[in-house]
Design goal:
Radius of gyration: 29 Å
Distance between the termini: 110 Å
Number of helices: 9
Amino acid sequence: MFVVVCALCPRNQNENQQTDKSLAIYVIFRLAYECGLKHKPCKGKEAKVAGKKACSVAIVLGVLPVLSASGQELLSPSRLDPTLKRLEFGQNVSQVLEVLKNRTMERYERLIRDTMDVSRQDQLRRARDKEIAEIGKDFYTFQGSAQGWDVSVIRDEFATDGSESMLHIQEGKNHLYFFFAQGVLYKFIIATVDQPMSEWLSRLEAQYGEPTKTKYIDDQKDLGVESAYWEGGLLTLELLDKTKLFQSVCVKWASKEVESARKRLREKSASQDTTPEKSILEEATKPTPSGAVVEPLDEMLGIKPLPPPEVPSKKKPKPPKKKP
């Protein structure tokens, strides 16, 4: 039995049933979409409310297992950080923002409750309000441009085809990155400088067990772990050592199927954008159609090269006419 649904349309949502319970549905949405399945967009008021995000399509084959809560997922981020218990893959941007703001509110409530100093309480309330107001301001849609993030620790984590967006939040020395495909959360990354790779590996092993795969820096395994990978349920978990370039260690949770599809898209996009680069010497000595040599500085400043000087032509003397 084939059931075609538009899961992000308001008519298919209600207060008691959120899209954050439908990660498995979303996986099939994207796979069906990439296989070329077409779907007629919503019309009328629903189209105005849902916009482009309302037209992701899925085919549900038979009975589809759906996560009732991310806490039941083997590799849930909440197993490492209980304050993320309400964060679920499959949530939309608004739901993620609500989770993060409530999380900040609860953190400050504990701090306020633990002090009897009235002035300190007021100071904490002002800090809380300021921090909550900042949540959501660092939001980017990668529409044809990386917007500067291509030289950051997440430079390999997104495509610039316009279907992907990212929410960035800084908490102390930690940076949190939430990635959305078609407006739906599918990947979450923590980049931190607080702990070395070995300590992170111990923390993750304590919560998630031994990694499925481990890559070492050297063949003798003397220099430590370069990356570790866990796989279980609908999610994957990766620990990545980025200290050489960015002085950071990254922990990445992602929907296995969606991240795999997005990775193929990123690789395809990168291969199409790659153009052969000419050497500086080749650029500096390239001739113009007029025969002039272009100076690199002139070209940078937009100065047109002067044409080569004209060489006066020498007229050959006419041979004397022979007398008849």
